[in-house]
Amino acid sequence: MNHWVAIITLTLLFANFYPGLLEAAEIALSQGQTVYVPVYSNVIAGPREVPIHLSNTLIIRNTDIHNEIQVLAANYYDTKGILLKKFYPQPVKLAPLETVYLYLSDRDQEGGVGANFIVRWRAAKEVNAPIIECVMVGSQGRAFVSPSRDIKEDTK
Questions:
Q1: Please, which pLDDT band fits residue 20 given cuts at 50, 70 and 90?
Q2: Those residues with Cβ within 8 angstroms of residue 88's Cβ, 6 or more apart along the chain or in another chain
Q3: What is the pTM of this model?
């Protein structure tokens, strides 16, 4: 039984950290995107449904070697979809291969289990899309990564 748990755990880790190993995707260039990033302020564990508080780091990596991008917004929403905070009131320029991050302490439980970031970015020309993800870490050494997902805002 423990053997299968180890295999499943390793498979999930590789799929999360190395998605290219499981699928071959063509590299698409973009001039900008809006992305949804799941954030877990806490997770519920055990038969008593005890919340485990997690610290969160939203990481935005400009993966383009030659071109800058601009982060237009990184807005933080709670479980009910209510805007809690706008982190970038002005666009932030990221030089080629530059990375920025936003940190939320494990004491910040305002977002809840269904919190999320909506991140908007743009570039002057088509570039390699940035990697945008959230890294969650618990006090017991548990850690996992939540990748972003492209969304469209004009769905009315």
A1: low
A2: 71, 72, 73, 74
A3: 0.79
